[in-house]
Amino acid sequence: MKILVTGAQGFIGQNLIAELTNQKYTDILEYDQDTNPALLDTYCQEANFVFHLAGVNRPQEQSEFMEGNFGFTKTLLDTLKKHGNTCTVLVSSSTQAALDNPYGRSKKAGEDLLAAYGRETGARVLIYRFPNVFGKWCRPNYNSAVATFCNNIARDLPITVNDPSVIMNLVYIDDVIEELIHALQGKENFVGDFCAVPVVHTITLGEIVDLLHSFKNSREERSVPNMSVGFTSKLYSTYLSYLPKDKFVYPLTMNVDDRGSFTEFIKTPDRGQVSVNISKPGITKGNHWHHSKNEKFLVVGGIGVIRFRKVGSDETIEYYVSGDKLEVVDIPTGYTHNIENLGNTDMVTIMWANESFDPDKPDTYYLEV
Fold first, then answer.
1. Alpha helix stretches (DSSP H) within the chain
2. How many CB atoms lie within 10 A of CB 136?
3. What is the rounded CA–CA span in Å between residue 207 and residue 36?
């Protein structure tokens, strides 16, 4: 199958081509504003499916709206007709097509042209009216507030929010691409007369900005957001894609003493925290118990032993652990416990606790095993 993608170097085009390649579609005909125009004739003759993603949304002159969103669509369809090619044509339109503004009128004109083409030729035509699309590879300071905010907040640059109560309807790029692949496979999703992405997120501009600031602060707080909230997870992935190239790394605070070190890695609001414990040879750490706090220990380097004793009992339980055989050891409540390095090198243990450490309520009580 030969797939023609117009607007191949645009935001949606780049993401679509990347996923088509992932799914082993090898005959992708890429057409963009820098492509030799003569190739359009060849591509329209060969294509078995057309993703028409090219368009104009931030021109220098308003007349360019109609030239780009109607004029090029007409050129594309006329070229397909010239070759008698009635393959499916999918066009990315906008919810703005329902509004009376220069951009909206140009998108509506392109839609009407495509619908008439479908009636005339019998070709299958699919019109997608996208709301605001966000995600990786969207150009900041262009036509996406989310892209601009992600870029600027990640770089400590100012942002402008005139009205934080403005409601945004957003679709995530991965959801868009999944829907476009479904359309390629004949499984498009219809809502009324138009095709649509099933998942649309409605949120205020102020809420978006607050989330993005929390993502930036999460590095200092060693936290990650609640990924069970779909929009939050998608926005966090988007924000990370805008990090400056020299800012991918960030330091952690290592609590170091002669026994080794203890470093908090990740804290979450609802899934506890993860830490890294390093014990020097011969060192024993712990000797405490908890009422409600529970933990999981995973030794990933070195060898050692984890000992337990139920509070009020004389019986000691031992589990030998090694980085050569990864096993998780649960630390039950009501058992005092310790971990000893039995090797000649540092022992590294990943520790998870069901709640982030609260110095005002540590729920940790010293008691020798």
1. 11-22, 38-46, 63-66, 72-82, 102-121, 145-154, 173-184, 205-221, 230-240
2. 18
3. 44
Q: Which two tokens stand for residue 263?
A: 């470093």
Q: What is the pLDDT of residues 198-253, one digit of tens each?
A: 999 999 999 999 999 999 999 999 999 988 889 999 999 999 999 999 999 999 99
pLDDT, tens digit, for every residue of 103-124?
A: 788 888 889 999 999 999 999 9
Q: What is the 3-state secondary structure (H, E, C) of 103-127?
A: HHHHHHHHHHHHHHHHHHHCCCEEE
> Are the C-beta atoms of residues 321 and 305 closer than 8 Å to each other?
yes
DSSP state of 206: H
Cα separation, 14 vs 137, whole angstroms: 8
Cβ proximity of 258 and 280 under 8 Å? yes
Closest Cα to residue 238, out of 145, 347, 301, 162?
Answer: 145
Chain position carrying tokens 């409605």: 202
Q: Say how many residues make up the chain.
A: 369
Specify whether the backbone of 214 is left (phi greater than 0), alpha (psi in -120 to 50) or beta. Answer: alpha
What's the pTM value of the predicted model, to 2 decimals? 0.90
Residue 210: other Cβ atoms inside 10 A: 12
Going along the chain from its start, the domains and CATH numbers come out as 2-130 (3.40.50.720), 254-366 (2.60.120.10)
Which tokens sit at 143?
Answer: 């036509």
For every residue of 303-329, DSSP letters joined together read EEEEEEEETT---EEEEEEETTB--EE
Amino acid in position 211: L
Catalytic residues: 103
Contact between 295 and 331 (Cβ < 8 Å): yes
For residue 223, the 8-state DSSP code is B
- With vertex at residue 115, the alpha carbon angle to CA 111 and CA 120, rounded to the nearest 5 degrees, is 145
d(CA 144, CA 11): 11
